[in-house]
Structure formats: structure tokens, C-alpha cells
From TrEMBL:
Record protein name field: CNTP2 protein
Gene: Cntnap2_1
Limits of the EGF-like domain: 105-142, 515-553
Stored PROSITE patterns: EGF_3 (PS50026), FIBRINOGEN_C_2 (PS51406), LAM_G_DOMAIN (PS50025)
Species per Swiss-Prot/TrEMBL record: Pedionomus torquatus (Plains-wanderer)
Fibrinogen C-terminal domain boundaries: 141-193
NCBIfam families: GGGWT_bact
UniProt KW keywords: Disulfide bond, EGF-like domain, Glycoprotein, Membrane, Repeat, Signal, Transmembrane, Transmembrane helix
Domain of life, per lineage: Eukaryota
Amino acid sequence: GSGLNDGQWHEVRFLAKENFAVLTIDGDEASAVRTNSPLQVKTGEKYFFGGFPIQMNDSDHSLFQHSFQGCMQFIHVDDQLVDLHAVEQGQLGSFANVTIDMCAIIDRCVPNHCEHGGKCTQTWDSFKCTCDGTRYSGATCHNSIYELSCEAYKHLGKTSNYYWIDPDGSGALGPLKVYCNMTEDKVWTTVYHDLQMQTSVGGNSLEKLPVLQLNYSATMDQISAITSSAEYCEQFISYSCKMSRLLNTPEGNPYTWWVGKANEKHYYWGGSGPGIQKCACGIERNCTDPKYYCNCDADYKQWRKDTGMLSYKEHLPVSQVVVGDVDRPGSEAKISVGPVRCQGDRNYWNAASFVTSSSYLHFSTFQGETSADISFYFKTSASDGVFLENLGNTDFIKLELKSATEVSFSFDVGNGPVEIVVRSPNQLNDDQWHRVNAERNVKQASLQVDQLPLEVRKAPTEGHTRLELYSQLYVGAAGGQRGFLGCIRSLRMNGVTLDLEERAKVTPGVKPGCSGHCTSYGMYCANGGKCVEKYNGYSCDCSKTAYDGPFCIKDVGAFFEEGMWLRYNFHSPGTSMKDLVSRTLLSSTDPEITAPDLSLNKEELSFSFSTTKSPCVLLYVSSYTQDFMAVLVKPSGNLQIRYSLGGTKEPYNIDVDHRNMANGQPHTVNVTRNGRDIVLQLDHYPPTSYSLPTASDIQFDSPKALFLGKVI
């Protein structure tokens, strides 16, 4: 059989005939076992169930060591049901250490402690959860295997794509698939629906109003979890009309409305706001007919449209659009609704700074009787302090920084206090962000700090399992203990983010928000990008790099067709970059630059290219004098670098022979000059050093412009 120790009833039949025997389990004849060779079974007058005594001497009955643990019922011998009551009353056979007429196996799978649909199996003294296919993990399938938001994926260094997110973590909502757009400073999260753009309505006489239903790739509760934690949300909506009025402005009842969150009807349109029965053109005062506040309300026979963004996030998403005025001959309408897009994640950066060691925030009692998870980020320069604590009569739960290298998670559910400590090889009071993850359930408790190994403590198999708390939850100093000094952010308890920021605004000794994100996340700004502090988070300034994107890792390049060129003017310290770029792009004539005051003793130039055309000029730097430098590909496909800094008749040439650079492969060039010394590095080859001739000048005088692709 299989799974015979699953705590369920199983049937065993053993049948011995004159010359063979059969063993059948759970009535499954197909897998019954038969003896191959003939055999005879002769029984004595005693049958032992559950174990049998080995007689050492008359008085000593020592049990056979592997006795059965469990329950038996319906014992039949030779098709006769054994009367267990007679055994209990001593009229039949005998027994030892057996409870008759009850089954004392503890059913450890009722109630089921496996969450999110995990499957429970049990042994004699414990149970186990199988989380396959639930999208949750852990001893009781409590923790989501996905991140909470697009912001969290961004900080794992992920790029724009579709991701599964679980906005309430270990809560009941379940994960959903969204598109995360990471190209801007703040991440956009997009949830799609199935309504086609420009869905046509009307054109015939209708019995009842046409209703357009939008089905999203997520439940309304899941979308609400995203909109409520976002800083800003929007949804595009458009009504194209031909003889079909929309809001019936200025005075009438609207013909068309949309249904949003919680099945509320809304009578405003994109580009307008709640309670304002106008379209975008009515607010901007540019409707086709100024008597009306919507283009469509003028009831023209030509196609018109009213479009805009719905951005009052408490009303989103749009779940239905009900269209009214399409039942007259010749009236028609087309509806488009975009996906819901939300930006910013208030939960991820929700933080508070604890200024004194007696500062604390308090919240309502933590409800985590049988399963609790707590996660947060902290940074501090202090060596100890309590992160949070919640008390009961004797039960409690507490997380604290015990020393500069130790985080402790302690609790008592009635079996005596338990403490789990994670020791870090590095200091934790280094003013960097550190992540703490604590979990306690009926099976075990665990604590993890950053990426250090998880510390786990198994729960006792018998005893109390419920954590009963009464006091308020204190974050920071509690009951006269030394509180935590520093910053805590993104504090989540059982999937719910505590709003530290709001509470800190009204609490003395605690400040909302946190500064100093660059110390922890500055390394994400690559290629020389500068990390810029912000109130909630940080951003990378890529203006001084050749890269773009939120982390300065997106290549900025161009495809040059033959004859195409690009010119970039160097500017004097007096003029701003933006003026120049706009002037350069708008006018092909020289902007009047007064920059002969700039001259270089050293410069570094690096770029990559790929081409199959030779000869060609890759790059040329001109000047107001005769000085120039250039990088070109010779007819042979080899690279040449030219420097002319004055003092010599001919320019100084560096030729890189026996390497074909016009092979269509990407190549990287780095030229660094310091005075007379030039170092050239190509691709991954070792750098080569060169030196300008002694007669040559070593100043690049008054550089004027950089040309790419061609010299004009």
C-alpha cells in the first residue's frame, strides 16, 4: 500500500488456505501479494495484536520492542468479529497498555495549519505541509514566493518585464501578474483587462442600455491593494461619438457613466475629477461648442471625442462603462479604456526615524495567534535597542538589536520563553540598511538577517500553540527598555504594512521618513552615475555618464546610416548645457560660442562601435586652433588614432595593425592621454602605451566640437 502512516483508516486482510496465502491492503485486489510456493499455516490458540510478549521466565512479560502505535477496529478472526468489550471485561484474552473503545491518535491536520491551500500530512507526533503549487513557502506555506511590488523587483536589479507580485505578502490575497516598467525614476505597475480599444456601441434600436464589462488579470481586491499603496494611479478613458451625447451637460442627467471600485457609479470623465460633471475640454474651456462641457454633448453628425486620464485612485479601476445615448437612428459611439497604471510604492519606503532611545510608536495589538511573520529594514549607528514588542498576560513577542552584531527574536506562547539569535560576522550598526525577517508558527520559529543563514527553532510537539497578546504593539522603546535609535522602514506584520510615517507625524521624538539611502543603494548607480538622496528613496543622476535609465546601465547609442553625422559643441563654463544642446539641434549654423579659454593637458575618451565599412571616421575633435584628434578606420580595416597638438608638421599617428575592426563585431576603445603619455586599450586586450614626440605641444588648445560619423 502507500501512505499507511497518514492517520487515516486502512484495511488489512490476510487469508491462508491449504497451500497458499494472500495479503490484501485497502481492498486493492490488483496489488495483493500471493505466495509462490505451496505452504501450510498452522496456528496456535492465541492471536497477538499490536505486539507480542517474549517470555523470559514465567513472571516476566517483556514486550517485543517494535510494537504498533495507533488504532485498530473491526478485528475479525476466521470471519468472526472479535468482541473487544469482552476483552475489556477480562472475559476474553488479555491486554496491556491499550485504551479500548476509543482512538487516541491526535489528528494534527484538523484544524489545518497549512495555509494558502497547502496539503497537510502527519506522523504520530507531528505534521508536515506540502506547499507545491500554492506559490507560498515555509513550514506552513505562510510566505509568498514572490516580491511585494515592482519597487522590490527594481531593487533586486531587475529590468522592465512582467512579474508576479503579492501585494499583501503572507495575507489572503494571492499573487497577480503585472507589468513593471522600470525605465523611470519611479516604477510604474500596470494591470491589464480584456476590453478592446475602440469598442463600438450602438447603431440599432436597443431594448436596454449597453454595458461594457472589463475583466482584469486580477481581482478587485488585488488591484485595490496596489492602488492603495501607490502614490499616484491613472487610467485612460475615451469616448468617440457621432450623434451620441456623453454627460448631457450643462444641466441634464448624464447618458453615460462608469462603474469603479466597490461598484460605485461615477459621472465625471477622463481629465476631470469627482463631483465635476465636465469633460477635459470643459475644464480647459476648449470644447467644440462652448455651450457644452463635453465635445460629444454638442450632438454633431461628425465624429468627435472626449478623452483623458481618470486619476482619482480611490475610484479606480473602471469595471464597467454604461452607454446611454446610442438608440437614435444614426447615433454611434466607440469606447476605449486603458490599463490601470500606478506609480510609486508608499509601503516600500514607508519609514520613521527614532531620535531618542525613549521614542516609540504604538499600534493596535498584533493578531498572530497561530502564525506570525514580521519583516522590516533597519539602519543605525547605535549598538543595541528594542525594535518592537507586544505583551500578553505571560505571552509576549519581541525583536531587538542585542549588540552591534546580534539580532534577537524572543517570544513565549505558554511553554516558557524562547529566544533565537542571529550573529552577523559584520557590524550591523554601520548605517546601512539591513533586512530582518522573523516568523513563528505552530511548527517552528525562524529568524533571518540580510542573506545570513536562517536560524530555526522547532516548536515542542505537545503544549501551547496560541500566542495570546493584549497590550498595544510598541515599535521602539517599550516599558522602560532602551529603544531603538535610527531608522525602521517597510515594517510588515502578517502581510500588512504599518504606516510608520503617518504615526510618526503626530508622535514627539519620532520623525517621518529617513535620509541616507545612498549609503546602502549608491552602488546600484553604475558607470559613474551619482546617487541623489530623496525623502523616500533615491535616484541615479546619469547626466555625467554615457548611459541612461534608472541605474545608468542603459546604453545610449545611435545607428548611423551612410552620410549621417552628429556634432556636439563643447561649451565654456559660462553657458549651460541645455541652452547649447537645444541651439545645436535647432540650428545647423555655429552657435556663437566664446570658448577659446578651455585647453586640456589630459583627457580620457571611451566609446564602443561596430561597423563593416572602411575607411571611415569614427570620431573627430576640432578646435578653434589647428589642434585636433581623430579616431578612424583605415581602408585595411585597422584602427588609427591621430593627435595634432601643434609643434610638429605632421599629426602623430598610432596605428593598430593586424586587427580588423570593420568586422561587424562590437569593439570598445579607450584613449587616455596625460601630457605626453598616451595609453590605448582595445576590447579586452592589454593596454599599450605610446608617447608624443618631444617636439609636440602637450596642450590641446580650445577644443570646439566633437563630430561622430563624418567630419564637416
